[in-house]
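[09:14] KT: can someone run the structure on this one? pasting the chain below
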Amino acid sequence: MDCPHCKVFHEEAIFKDNLMVCPECGHHLRMEPRDRIAYLADEGSFKEINKGLTSCNPIEMEGYEEKISQAQMKTNMEEAIITGSCTIEGEKALLGVMSFSFMGGSMGSVVGEKICRLMLKGAEEKTPVIIYATSGGARMQEGLFSLMQMAKTSSAAATLDEAGVPFFVMLCDPTTGGVTASFAMLGDITCAEPNALIGFAGPRVIEGTIRQKLPEGFQRAEFQLEKGFVDTIVPRSEQKSFFAKMIKAHKYEENFFAKMWKSYESSKNQDKEL
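[09:31] RB: done, C-alpha cells below
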C-alpha cells in the first residue's frame, strides 16, 4: 500500500509492524481500535466493558438499521467505540478507543452512553480514563438524541473532574464536530497525534463559507499546538510510555499531598495537646 503523504509503497505488514506509521516519512495513518488496544494495553490485561450495546433507530430514520449492519460487518465492531479496563506498563487505566471506520466515528446515543459509563466508572473506582477520539461529529441519523450526547458526555467529564480523577484525551485524525465540541476538549491533558486534523467544521466547509483559501497546515495538530488548542503532540510509538508516566505522575502528586495533609493534621493535634 502507498503512504498517502509521501506516496512511497510499503507492504501492508510493514505498516502494521510500525503501528501504521510510514517508515519513510513518519506519516501517521489511521489505526483501528483493536490494534491500538493491542499496543497500549499490557498483554492479556484488557477487559472489554459495556459490550453488547447497539443503536436502535430513535427517530425512525429510513435505512439507518441497514447502515448500522453494514458498519458492523465492515469493522467487526458493535459500535464506533470500544471501552474497557486494562493496565499500561502496570498502571491501571480505563480505556475508550473510537473508530472512524464505523460511520465516521459519529457519536450517537450508544457511543455517548459508553463514554459516560466509562467516565463514571473511573470516578467511582478512582481509575484514570484515557479516550482516543476520532470522529466526524454527531450522528445525524439520530437527530437530537445524538446532540444530547454532547451535554451528557461533558457532564460525565465534570463528574470525573470533581472526583479528582485524571482524564487524558488523544485526538486522532480526524476529530471534528460535536465530539470536538464536547468531551474531547475536556481532558486534563489534551494530546494529539502528529498531523491529525482537529477542529469543529472541516477546512472545506470553512473555505466554502468564507470563500478564502486557508493557510497550509490549518487545523492540523501542529497548528493547534501553536495556538494552544492542544497541550502536546505524542508520536504513536511513544504513547504507551507517555500515558504510563502521566498516571504515575498523578499518583505521586496524590500521595505527596496526602502525606502533606496528614503531616499538617498531625501537627495541629500536637499543638492542641500543648
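[09:33] KT: thanks! The chain has two domains: 1-30, 31-273.
[09:34] RB: yep, looked fine to me
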